[in-house]
Amino acid sequence: MDDNKNHKDKKMDHSKMDHSKMDHSKMEDPKSTDHSKMDHSKMDHSKMDHSKMKHGDHDSIPMGMAGHDHHKMMIADFRKRFWVTLVLTVPILFFSPMIQEFFGYSFLLPGNPYILFALSTVVYFYGGWPFLKGLVSEIKKGAPGMMTLISMAISVAYFYSTATVFGLRGEDFFWELSTLIAIMLLGHWIEMKSVLGASKALQLLVSMMPAEAHRVKGDTIEDIPLEDLLKDDVILVKPGEKVPADGIITEGSSYLNESMLTGESKPVKKDENDKVIGGSVNGNSTLKVKVEHTGKDSYLNKVIKMVEEAQKTKSKMQNLSDRAAKWLTYIALAIGFGTLAVWLILGFPFVYALERMVTVMVIACPHALGLAIPLVVAISTAVSAQNGLLIRNRTAFEESRKISALLFDKTGTLTKGDFGVTRIESVNEAYSSEEILRLSSALEQSSEHPIAVGIIKKVKENKVTIPNPENFNAITGKGVEANVEGKQVKVVSPGYLRDEKIDIPEDAYSDAAETVVFVLIDGKLAGYIALADEIRPESAEAIKIFKKNNIKVLMATGDNEKTAKAVSEKLGLDGYYAEVLPHQKVEIVNELQNKGEFVAMTGDGVNDAPALAKANVGIAVGSGTDVAAETADIILVNSNPKDIANLILFGKATYNKMIQNLIWATGYNVVAIPLAAGVLYSSGFVLGPAVGAVFMSLSTIIVAINAQLLKRRIGKK
After folding, report:
1. Please, how many CA atoms are within 13 Å of residue 335, restricted to the half-sphere of its CB?
2. Which of 293, 323, 357 is the last residue of a domain?
3. Which residues touch 318 (CB under 8 Å, ≥6 apart)?
4. Is residue 472 included in any domain, yes or no?
5. 409 is a catalytic site residue
6. Please, what is the Cα angle at 322 between 698 and 313, to 5 degrees?
7. Dmax over Cα atoms in the chain, in whole Å?
8. Rounded to the nearest 5 degrees, what angle is found at the Cα of 571, between the Cα atoms of 569 and 575?
9. By the 8 A CB rule, do 326 and 144 touch?
């Protein structure tokens, strides 16, 4: 990975990216769950066809709250249709002569066939409506799939059974019709529910900006809506507030937390004439800022645009069950009409030949195929959540087994995201490390400097009582001093020691990623405190696991070169990229993909959002922003890099279960359809509808049990 190490020094020009090489064909994938492609202004929600909604049609949902609510309404619609159908299916099964004969009981009411017809008509038109509408949609697209197969089966069953009620000799299939619709509604309801959560990333990016700004007008301050803010307006940013817009500080100085925007791990000192980014969080000082960019020209909006563009180019794996259904549709139609023709040619009565054809057509749509994928999806989603993995994009989860390169953000991902104390060392026997921490905390308790914040955090963790300082004084650019409990205490930089001709201990800088401050008591060096954005203890072990599985591990961070190099060397990464901006992270992902890598990006900040969207698999750590989480395909609840290893292993297991279930569900047809057609008629065996029902039920049970085995698989990771 030397190429990657060398790449860290390159200045990446996003404007020079060769967009012509991008695979725009992927953007037209009708199976894509990409919401960002839509022209929402042209969307007429009143005319949206709820019935067409299934997992393969998610691109019909508008992005944003309206689309999110619409998706919820459609799930509720499937749920309602399922329960109504299920309630009606119970009496249909009970009064069905074929079921009564199979179970050996008899309970027929006057007008029994008409009762079954009436109940089944409601089931067919109400419960089956989404599939019938889906049939029309698939035929228009010239892409028959699951909807076509389901519609064909229920329509043949309904109209043939209706004909038997009104004079045609034969047995009805109302029971098969109702159970098929009920189980298919359940399968689609489960699947839609499991993939709910259409990306809200762009909304969340916008929500990072405050709703109002404090505009300075002469001696007065007025609160105005953010959209009324104009270029060159002067705004007041109070301590702890978010900066409303990009601009330049005209008055004041403060430390701003930009970690969720730029990846910088510690608050950045900003003085007059320094630029500030909209969405960053102000420290403990008041600032006046002259607005430079608002609206579409702002840094945050540029990130939003990149997220949108990256989502447009994300490819999706075609739904496996739809592919199986497409072929089963062709096979069922061919064998069904072939069966009718053969039996008629052989001289059998039309009614007998028709019954053989109907049996083939109904059996061709096994209940197991409708549940093969949704059951695995539902179980894997639930089990993953229990084990720290929240799956938002099923396709990406399935494809996690292909990951060949992992690109990590540093801050908050490989590291904890806090500028904390890593070491406290005493060089004077008179003072212990605990005493050095206690005395220095007296000087740092009212400072907003990141070093001070880190020291106070350590004090609180150790439950140390902070003494009161006297005669506090700032040593310009070099530290602070005060009298504490009768002692003169100074917390200073290495530069102060050099100026005062005090030797710096040889082991003070054992880690290039650390910042070190020195504590002087009564003019003598007592010890020092080292601080850094601490590396997660799990990171090193996780990287060993990835390398063992031949996965390249790289890091892209907005942090400085020195820190990035130190973290990379400590963890033994294959390469790193330092001081990169959001668009450069996207370029890195794109570059790796162009080299043939299947890339997973892991991050937690707004600056990671475009790269998370662009990567083949985007993984957000739970401690990060909602923006990163909503852009990512998978979220690590516990922010543990080792969970990514579990993700890859469990993704492989889940995919295998889907393939196994599809093989079984379609394999059932390979045996059942020829038998129903009568290939063994000469041997005295023809598969009857009742026996076909037993095989159908057995197939469904096997698929369900196999899916449940996933729960055991995750425990063996």
Report:
1. 25
2. 293
3. 29, 31
4. yes
5. yes
6. 140
7. 115
8. 60
9. yes
* DSSP track, 488-517: EEEEE-HHHHHHTTPPPPGGGGS-TT-EEE
What are the φ and ψ backbone dihedral angles of 54, each rounded to 5 degrees? -150, -175
Q: List beta partners, residue 225.
A: 212
Q: Is the pLDDT of residue 474 over 70?
A: yes
Neighbour-count burial of 212, counting CB atoms closer than 10 A to its CB (0-12 exposed, 13-18 middle, 19+ buried)? middle
**Where do the DSSP E strands lie in 313-370?**
none
- From the list 633, 554, 191, 536, the residue with the least C-alpha distance to 373 is 191
Q: Which CATH number goes with the domain that contains 427?
A: 3.40.1110.10
At 509, the amino acid letter reads Y
Structural domain total, the chain: 2
pLDDT digits (tens, 9 = 90+) for 117-173: 999 999 999 999 998 998 898 888 887 777 787 788 788 889 988 998 998 877 777
Residues 516, 491: contact at Cβ < 8 Å?
no
DSSP annotation string for 138-167: HHHHT---HHHHHHHHHHHHHHHHHHHHTT
The two three-digit tokens of residue 142, written as one number = 């010239």
Q: Are residues 552 and 559 in contact, defined by beta-carbon separation less than 8 angstroms?
A: no
- CATH code of the domain containing 289: 2.70.150.10
CB 294 within 8 A of CB 115: no
Task: Please identify which residue in the block is written with the tokens 């095989």.
Answer: 695
Residues composing the chain? 717
Q: Are 392 and 632 in contact (CB under 8 A)?
A: yes
CA–CA dist 445, 313 (Å, integer): 49
Indicate whether 702 belongs to any domain: no
Is 237 within a domain?
yes
Is residue 408 one of the residues assigned to a domain? no
How many Å apart are CA 380 and CA 368, to the nearest integer?
18
**Count of other CB atoms within 10 angstroms of residue 425:** 18
Q: Which amino acid is at 481?
A: E
pLDDT digits (tens, 9 = 90+) for 569-596: 989 999 999 878 767 889 999 999 999 9
Count, in order, helices (H) and strands (E) of the chain. Answer: 25, 22
Q: What is the distance between the alpha carbons of residues 589 and 582, in angstroms, rounded to a whole number?
A: 11
Domain range for residue 280? 210-244+246-293
Last residue of a domain, one of 534, 556, 586: 534
Listed residue (446, 456, 466) closest to 419, CA to CA: 456
User: Cα–Cα distance between 421 and 408 in angstroms, integer?
Assistant: 23
Q: Please write the tens of the pLDDT for every residue from 219-248.
A: 899 999 888 889 899 999 998 888 988 899
Q: Among residues 77, 409, 418, 604, which one is catalytic?
A: 409
